[in-house]
Amino acid sequence: MSPAPMMYELATNGSKTTTIPAAKMATMPHTTSIPVTAPTKPEVIEDMAGNWADFKFAPIRESQVSRAMTRRYFADLDKYAESDIVIIGAGSCGLSTAYTLAKARPDLKIAIIEAGVAPGGGAWLGGQLFSAMIMRKPADAFLRELGVPYEDDGVDANYVVVKHAALFTSTVLSKVLQFPNVKLFNATAVEDLITRKTEDGGIRIAGVVTNWTLVSMHHDDQSCMDPNTINAPLIVSTTGHDGPFGAFSVKRLVSMNAIPALGGMRGLDMNTAEDAIVKGTREITPGLIVGGMELSEVDGANRMGPTFGAMALSGVKAAEEALKVFEQ
Ligand code: 48N
């Protein structure tokens, strides 16, 4: 006797449900279904053509995997030991900087150092863990440049909405990682800056000092674990205003007496904050451009809360400031 068909519960109307055999599922008009165009089967399903019973990966030796990973990682460390630009922090500002720079100057070697395993900083959610991301006009131009779809709440809305912040962040991250002149070193922290004395007795930033983040976080409970370095004539620091390493570079500049005391981020004022961060993005010490919310700690700018247009456009401006250095 063939086994009874598996039955599935289907919502039909409001709280009403019915249970039907799998075969009928595809034919039933789901009340919960989302209107779609013509569903298409992913190619891989056609390729597999249901031959899972005979499925088998091509054979491999574990060392091949190890060598494929480590060979590339250490070749990249060697290649980017001398970079043209290092971006510290792969949040919304750092990624926008990287995208703008890498597209404008495919000849420049750009290293991005991100302390987190997951790049993206605070841009995976909108505000209070809500999904939608708000960007005030004219930052929608950057969304169009990236091809990120958004909803426009109307001419008097003065803002657009990306339905999920992760759509923006994953798109800009994906584009940045596809540039051949960009290397992201994530799970890697900048734990100091390389400095050179200038004739006027000041300092110029000439690179970054790095360590794997898990190592950086255990300097207090392990004997000295020396860092690595990356030399570069220009650094863009976008390390945000909070987080375990927040506002890293500007705090380090103060501790080196390279800049006076920090201004400290002020209370929330969207209009003031976003204009100030974009317009204030600049080279604050020779060799170091600061953008995004890290800048609010230098200038004592207000915070803007759950709106991200300034992060995107501060990244665009940071890239433009960097390009000026390379065009000089
Ligand atoms: O997202 P963040 O924190 O920074 P930004 O400036 O790209 O974007 C800020 C934005 O998310 C807001 O804060 C919004 C607009 N809210 C404003 C408000 O009023 O609250 O990204 C910084 C990235 C993070 O991914 C950190 O892990 C990383 O920088 N980072 C570092 N990476 C390497 N080395 C370090 N020393 C370091 N410090 C921070």
UniProtKB/TrEMBL annotation:
Residue(s) carrying 2,3-didehydroalanine (Cys): C224
Entry GO CC: cytosol; nucleus
GO annotation (BP), single: thiamine biosynthetic process
Subcellular location: Cytoplasm; Nucleus
PTMs per UniProt: During the catalytic reaction, a sulfide is transferred from Cys-224 to a reaction intermediate, generating a dehydroalanine residue.
Keyword entries, A-Z: Cytoplasm, Iron, Metal-binding, NAD, Nucleus, Thiamine biosynthesis, Transferase
Catalytic activity: [ADP-thiazole synthase]-L-cysteine + glycine + NAD(+) = [ADP-thiazole synthase]-dehydroalanine + ADP-5-ethyl-4-methylthiazole-2-carboxylate + nicotinamide + 3 H2O + 2 H(+)
Gene3D superfamilies assigned: 6.10.250.2840, FAD/NAD(P)-binding domain (3.50.50.60)
Enzyme class: transferase
Known EC number: 2.4.2.60
Organism domain of life: Eukaryota
Cofactor(s) needed: Fe cation
GO terms of molecular function: cysteine-dependent adenosine diphosphate thiazole synthase activity; iron ion binding
Principal location: cytoplasm
Co-factor binding comment: Binds 1 Fe cation per subunit.
Positions that bind substrate: C93, E114, A115, G122, V190, D226, H241, M293, R303, M304, G305
Pfam families: Thi4 (PF01946)
Described function: Involved in biosynthesis of the thiamine precursor thiazole. Catalyzes the conversion of NAD and glycine to adenosine diphosphate 5-(2-hydroxyethyl)-4-methylthiazole-2-carboxylic acid (ADT), an adenylated thiazole intermediate. The reaction includes an iron-dependent sulfide transfer from a conserved cysteine residue of the protein to a thiazole intermediate. The enzyme can only undergo a single turnover, which suggests it is a suicide enzyme. May have additional roles in adaptation to various stress conditions and in DNA damage tolerance.
Subunit record text: Homooctamer.
Assigned protein family: Belongs to the THI4 family.
HAMAP family for the chain: THI4
Name of the protein described by the UniProt record: Thiamine thiazole synthase
Species this protein is from: Meristemomyces frigidus
